[in-house]
Amino acid sequence: MKRLEGKVAVITGGNSGIGLATAKRFVAEGAHVVITGRREKELQEAAAAIGSNVTTVTGDVTRLEDLDRLYAVVKEKHGHIDVVFANAGWGELAPLEVATEEHFDKTFDLNAKGTFFTVQKALPLLKDGGSIILTASVANVRGDPAFSAYAAAKAAVRTFARGWTVELKDRKIRVNSMSPGPIETPALEKVGLTADQIEQAAAHFASQVPLGRRGKAEEVAAAVLFLASDESSYVTGIDLAVDGGMAQV
Fold this sequence. Notes:
- 42% of the residues lie in helices and 19% in strands.
- By secondary structure, the protein is an alpha/beta fold.
- The mean pLDDT is 94.
């Protein structure tokens, strides 16, 4: 029996990296996935890579009207949701002394506001006993230089998981956050670094990880699958670190 047989899962940021790897894994485990992202071309490429049982909806999670459109599609096509993976996020290096208001607002809008309303607007369709997984980050418990706004936004995500666990307990909806460490995804290429700096950053991250390497998106997807499935039926309110030990020792 596949672990998500017949389930409907919504994945934000499902067009690349961890979101795409998770969508592939969910479909392999019997789910139908609805993925969303801001770039139509990347979404279609992701759908082709997933292969089947996938619906795409272009949208930006910081825009509430886009979320309304996402869930309207889900309601029309499936009528309900079993799993929400609020994964869309963004980080950029910005030291305190030079960080701009634009940087701060963009960081919190996508990581905190986007996650908050992704979940809020899913609730009418989310079945009792469903699972919500939020992508936080090991940054939420670390003190990494030039990453303070991102770390604070991800700490907010961790707090959402705690609060919503209590708010949704009567519906038996489980809410957990998942904190990846340094993962081999396109994310490093989007934080304003040169190719040499990316290589140096990757080596630096690997040196801080007890397992001695960056993780793979598929390894994170396996952890998300656990939180989405009945295998974690007695797990709620936690932050599951998938970080090779980076923030644990």
